[in-house]
Design goal:
Number of domains: 1
Distance between the termini: 24 Å
Order of helices and strands: HHHHHH
Structural class: mainly alpha
Radius of gyration: 16 Å
Shape: globular
Largest sheet: none
Strand content: under 5%
Keywords: Membrane, Transmembrane, Transmembrane helix
Transmembrane segments: 32-51, 83-103, 109-126
Helix content: 55-70%
Bound molecules: iron/sulfur cluster
Number of helices: 6
Length: 144
């Protein structure tokens, strides 16, 4: 599988994890599920605005395809990532993963599926995408 295929597949797995989290919420508290999905979309948008707009691969070069295309709709920014920007990205991603855990803990099969999808997606990104990504300022990029 080439890197773009791995990038899109890993993003699909992470999206699947979010959907599984939303299903777990919907089974216990139906009104909270759309709120979670809306919040997750907003947080992903924040990550794209804060992180991807500084990436030299934004636009057609993005190894995950969609984030780069969306980032290209926003004004491009330059320079290294600041500690605040990295903190915003980390908090946004942690919130997306953490919020459904309360409902997932009482639904073990969905909990397992959530972490299989999220874990596989994250490992694929770290092992297959980050190693060849051209975003030299990314903190996940291995040191040269
Ligand atoms: S490769 Fe660049 S544009 Fe694509 S997701 Fe990563 S940081 Fe964003």
């Amino acid at each position: 599988m080439n890197t773009v295929a791995v990038g899109t597949f890993s993003l699909t797995l992470l999206t699947g994890a979010v959907i599984v989290g939303a299903v777990a919420i919907a089974l216990a508290a139906p009104l909270y599920a759309p709120a979670y999905l809306a919040a997750a979309a907003l947080l992903v948008g924040t990550v794209i605005a804060v992180f991807c707009t500084k990436c030299p691969l934004r636009g057609k070069g993005c190894l995950h395809v969609l984030p780069g295309r969306l980032a290209a709709l926003l004004p491009a920014r330059q320079g290294k990532y600041t500690a605040v920007e990295i903190a915003i990205v980390v908090v946004a991603l942690l919130l997306i993963a953490a919020v459904p855990q309360y409902w997932l803990f009482s639904q073990v099969p969905l909990l397992a599926l959530f972490w299989v999808l999220a874990g596989t997606g994250a490992v694929l990104i770290l092992r297959r995408v980050c190693l060849v990504c051209g975003n030299r300022c990314c903190p996940l990029r291995p040191k040269e």
